[in-house]
Amino acid sequence: MLKEILRMAFSSLGVNKLRSFLTMSGITIGVFSVIGVMTIVSALRGSIESGLNILGTNAFQFQKYPSGFNNGNNRKYRLRRNITLNEGQRYQRLMEGIADVVSLELYDFRGAPAQAVYENRKTTPGITFGGGNQHYLAANQYVIDIGRNFTEAEVALGRPVCWIGSAIAKALFPTESALGKVVKVRGRTYTVIGQALERGSSFGNDQDSIVIVPITRFAMEFGNESQSLNIASQAPSQEVYYETIDKAITAMRIARGLKPEDENDFELFSNESLVAQFAKVANAVSSGAFVISAIALLAAGVGIMNIMLVSVTERTKEIGIRKSIGARKNSILVQFLIESVVISLAGGVAGILIGVVAGNGIAMMMNAAIIFPWLWAGIGLLVCSGIGVGFGFYPAYKASSLDPIEALRFE
């Protein structure tokens, strides 16, 4: 009996293919919106340790502005004084013996994107160009592949030297060693003393298209009054990490000349804070996707009920004939419920597949891992089944409650 009911339900859906498809598409859109977003979020969460681990182990950083996930009141931060090189050097002296690494960093964000040039070869515009001290490599997890790092004397004297990323080396020196060559950036020339190992991209940012010169040289040639210094520090161990942060905040306040009653005019962030801020953004995006999906699924459910009511009206005489030859009320009810659930589940499956493909496509563009959100897919199918039963029950009950005599007289 169940096999026969299933056969009749599927054959009824096949009679009106276009109507069934249009009804199903509403469910597809609703499920796609939430599955697509959750696929992206889940993929990024899976890559968060490597993707957001932009600082070294036990490291933290001071800067003028908050991290990219939490810009807050931009005007408030724009009005802050820039962190100057002198303040950074004073902070470095105060942290001697407390932090293993203190990296001073300045970046070039002026005008057109920076571009590196060697003879008749050029990199694409938009490379990372800045100044750092001898601790920049360790603080930002770069490793020298060929050549060497800056010496303390080169940083102190502001020598015109630089180390480059692997992408710069491939673009400018495809068949020869970069060491000892002179590259030009922003009209200034620097001798290459080192080349970093390849790091790849993180969230669309190429970490190998980078040129770093001694921070004193950078400040001398481009000035540091209009640019704010970033200061990265590394605690000796995890056990003294938070103690080191407390001492670093005190040292930073002293370097900035703040009074006891003044609030901090700088931002501190670490890998942990970046992860927490990303989680807040991800949760907000997920909540938005749930709201959009709920509205779409509610509208789709109303559409299913409407179409099933139309189907009951169109097949009134068929129901009357079936009842007159012995079909039970439950059989009619189950048949129409199956039709409703099949439409809903088919739309849900289509939405899941499209959402997973689209979500993973965007995740791949952001260099995150490909995943299949099994939990959310299962939840999606359960919700679709519930919609099919919930919104299909009234039409199914109405069909099963028809009087066979009245139904046979229906034209």
Description of the molecule:
With 411 residues, the protein is an alpha+beta fold. It folds into two domains: 2-49 and 276-409, no CATH class; 81-265, no CATH class. The chain is 55% helix and 15% strand. The chain is built from 15 helices and 14 strands. It has helices at 2-15, 17-46, 48-51, 74-78, 85-94, 136-139, 152-157, 166-172, 215-222, 241-256, 271-314, 316-324, 329-365, 374-400, 404-409, and strands at 59-63, 101-107, 116-118, 121-122, 128-132, 144-147, 161-164, 182-185, 188-196, 201-202, 205-206, 210-214, 230-234, 267-270. Strands 1, 2, 3, 4, 5, 6, 7, 8, 9, 12, 13 and 14 form a twelve-stranded mixed beta sheet that branches. Strands 10-11 form a two-stranded antiparallel sheet. A hairpin with a 2-residue loop joins strand 3 (116-118) and strand 4 (121-122). Helix 1 crosses helix 13 and helix 11 packs parallel to helix 14 (374-400). It is elongated. The model has no long low-confidence stretch (mean pLDDT 82).
Summarize the structure.
With 411 residues, the chain is α+β, with helices and mostly antiparallel strands. It has helices at residues 2-15, 17-46, 48-51, 74-78, 85-94, 136-139, 152-157, 166-172, 215-222, 241-256, 271-314, 316-324, 329-365, 374-400, 404-409, and strands at residues 59-63, 101-107, 116-118, 121-122, 128-132, 144-147, 161-164, 182-185, 188-196, 201-202, 205-206, 210-214, 230-234, 267-270. It has 15 helices and 14 strands.
